Amino acid sequence: MNKFTRRDCLKLLGLGTAAVAAGTSPLTAQNSNVAPRETPAEKADRERRLAWWKQAKFGMFIHWGVYSVLGRHEWVMEMEGIPAQEYEKLAAQFKPKPNAARDWARLAKQTGQKYMVMTTKHHEGFCNFATQTTNYCAPKQGPGRDLVREYVDAARAEGLRVGFYYSLMDWHHPDGSRCAEDEAARRRFVDYIHTHIRELMTNYGKIDILWYDVAWPLDAKGWESEKMNDMVYKLQPDIIVNNRNKLNGDFSTPEQRIEAAEGDRAWESCMTLNDSWGYQKADDGWKTPKQVVRNLITCARDGGNYLLNIGPTADGSIPTETVDIFNEVGEWTANNGESIYGTDKCQPTRSRNGNFTRKGNTLYFHVHYYPGTSVAFAGLMTKALSARLLNGGEKVDFTQDAYSINFTGLPPTAPDHPVTTIAIECESVPTQDNIFVRKRGRGHV
Ligand code: GLC
Q: Which domains are present in the chain?
């Protein structure tokens, strides 16, 4: 039998041996962002800038651009190999209705989302904003106006914080790929990108979030990412910046999955509502309102945020399925917001009927599989003082012993939809021992 060694595997992956010799994992070495040492003052400033966002928990992502005209996902240009000269003609057909963003902002507000992040330029290279750098931008093409301006005004009108998504990768700019091999091309392209960021950070008032995306094909040095972030912080001293320009930035961005960052680091899980970010008219893989609410709960439980996407059509309309799902989620957040916004990281996680969030000494038990009349969970190590249904405030009776807490006298059918939340006031910060029952063998002591 042939022995397939780790070294062979690395060779196949084309990762060379330097990292092996250095004793580091090459995959980590290749993918990791530069982690600069941080002074206490820098840490304190980051906490200050992140404070509102950590309370906010729930945001709306918006993917909108020329790809919305085709309705076949925002990667359509690359995925179908459409030449740039052909693709760019679609920009003349991108004719959104006036102020479409007002409907997005109203929907976000109703859904309980506290901030919005809109694509100002996606990988296709089309700028939804007014720029001096190219004619391939909304005011000079089909839309005939600055779509980012409308978006910013709409978000602010609803009292929502404003975020800009910006793709560094650019399939339209002629230097967008050759910048990796050609220094003159890199110089031109990086100047082009930095100019966009300067325009975005200068022309729209206070911006709360800058959400970089896809840094292919350069590294942090090539993008001049340190300089980029320095400029951003200088122009927007209160802004937070994500980690997708090959620097750590202020927060991590797990995509299509919920995964807490290590330690105290801030994180936000971004997710599609069906399987696509940009409008994909045939995509019927919608999440249910229950899945969305459960995801929001899990993010809040683990101390993170949930950025949930909409993909408007080319005229700016929101797909009706999206509106219906968001409306149901909005009803839930309206009645259960106390258990989401401003919550703390929650240690208890274990139940087959529900999930948990926490604020101070209050534990929220989110029952998504409602058994009827009574529901229990094991291993709560803190004494419960009282319990109530979060929606409506009705008192819930319970019994508690060393092993479990059992809520009784509940209605036979779930009193709230899609998740019923029981708020439990505890004597101190609630904790759970996941194997308390197993260790002690109930019935044997
Ligand atoms: C990915 C995709 C992109 C999408 C983004 C959102 O990086 O390339 O299309 O905008 O995820 O996180």
A: 40-339 (3.20.20.80), 354-438 (2.60.40.1180)
